[in-house]
Design a protein that fits this description.
The complex is a heterodimer of chains A (about 120) and B (about 180). Chain A is an alpha/beta fold and about 120 residues long. Chain A has one domain (about 35-125): OB fold (Dihydrolipoamide Acetyltransferase, E2P) (Beta Barrel), CATH 2.40.50. In chain A, about 30% of the residues lie in helices and about 35% in strands. Chain A has 3 helices and 6 strands. Chain A has helices spanning about 1-20, 40-50, 50-55; strands spanning about 35-40, 60-70, 75-80, 80-85, 100-110, 115-125. In chain A, helix 2 crosses helix 3. The longest helix of chain A has 20 residues, at about 1-20. Chain A is elongated and about 70 Å long. Chain B is mainly beta and about 180 residues long. Chain B has one domain (about 20-180): Lipid/polyisoprenoid-binding, YceI-like (Lipocalin, Beta Barrel). Chain B contains 2 helices and 9 strands. An 8-stranded antiparallel barrel of chain B has the order 1-2-3-5-6-7-8-9. The longest helix of chain B has 15 residues, at about 1-15. The relative contact order of chain B is 0.20. Classes of the chains: A alpha/beta (about 120), B mainly beta (about 180). At the A-B interface, strand 5 and strand 6 of A face strand 1, strand 2, strand 3 and helix 2 of B.
């Protein structure tokens, strides 16, 4: 009886350990957005208070609304100030000038081009 | 007279105007794997890079949070314990391509890159790193690789994982810059 108990505990520990080491990646799609704001508000925040904004937004899932100013196969730019990168090809027939809402993860501020970068994006609306 | 000066100023400004090539989706990989252990490898596909063709100035900015690992836990440890990306969210390179000239850029040319790389709050000089450049219409392709030591950037590898993570890290880059 005790032998069985030890075996079961070992198995459970092994299972838990395996799940910890090989845990899955964050699913931005499923995550609740920590902040919802406009593209302008986000880029102004990074421009005016870079370090506070980094603390606040870095690695967070956010929902951003804005106007498409540039669009490529796997990325688009909102209001020339927020660069959104998609993991897959952009499927919706969105084009320059349309207003759009996007969810993604903030990875940081690009001072070379003065744009906020967001990855793992997808179109919400 | 005043107009003439403005006109002259305008033309001379135009003459020194730089033509720039830019990418926002450059790729930087690094690998610190040790044979027969799980690979320690990450890819960043959100690198910004700029080349000024007139001066040969070359700058790149890597957002550290943008490095993606196959293993989620490894990604977490990289961000929290090694790169400390909350504190140091950016890695930057500023330098130039030796004797760069857009006219010299034929099918594939090798140019030497010099400059300084800042990561994890530490700066290291890079000298004579050979990069492969080629021109394709409005695009310039840049690729190359080099080795870095974790000690150059004050990154300590804990004893427990010492034999699983290499202290020599191979960094490779691949940019496709578009004329602006």
């Amino acid at each position: 009886m005790r032998k069985w108990l030890i075996l079961v505990i070992l198995l459970l520990a092994g299972f838990a350990g395996y799940n910890y080491i090989y845990q899955s990646h964050r699913d931005i799609h499923e995550e609740q957005a920590a902040y919802t704001l406009s593209a302008q508000a986000l880029s102004t925040a990074f421009l005016k208070t870079p370090s506070e904004s980094e603390l606040k937004y870095l690695n967070k899932t956010i929902e951003i609304s804005g106007n498409i100013t540039e669009i490529n196969k796997k990325d688009l730019t909102l209001n020339e100030s927020v660069f959104c990168q998609f993991s897959n090809l952009i499927t919706l027939p969105s084009k320059k000038g349309t207003n759009i809402k996007i969810k993604g993860r903030v990875i940081g501020y690009d001072d070379l081009l003065e744009q906020v970068k967001v990855d793992q994006c997808f179109i919400v609306d | 007279m005043k107009h003439l000066i403005y006109l002259l100023a305008f033309f001379s400004l135009n003459l020194v105007a730089q033509s720039k090539y830019i990418t926002k989706t450059g790729v930087v990989n690094f690998e610190a794997s040790v044979a027969s252990f799980e690979e320690v490898k990450a890819m960043n596909q959100s690198v910004t890079a700029i080349i000024e063709t007139k001066s040969g100035a070359f700058a790149a900015l890597v957002l550290v949070k943008g490095f993606r690992f196959k293993n989620a836990l490894m990604e977490e440890h990289f961000n929290e314990n090694y790169a400390e990306s909350d504190q140091f969210p950016k890695a930057t390179f500023k330098g130039n391509l030796e004797d760069f000239s857009i006219d010299k850029l034929s099918a594939t040319s090798i140019f030497k890159m010099n400059g300084s790389l800042t990561f994890h709050g530490k700066t290291k000089k890079l000298e004579s790193i050979p990069l492969k450049l080629s021109r394709e219409g409005d695009f310039i392709n840049v690729s190359g690789s080099f080795l870095l030591n974790t000690s150059d950037f004050d990154i300590k590898i804990p004893k427990v994982v010492k034999d699983k993570v290499s202290e020599t890290v191979e960094v490779s880059l691949n940019f496709k810059l578009k004329k602006t």
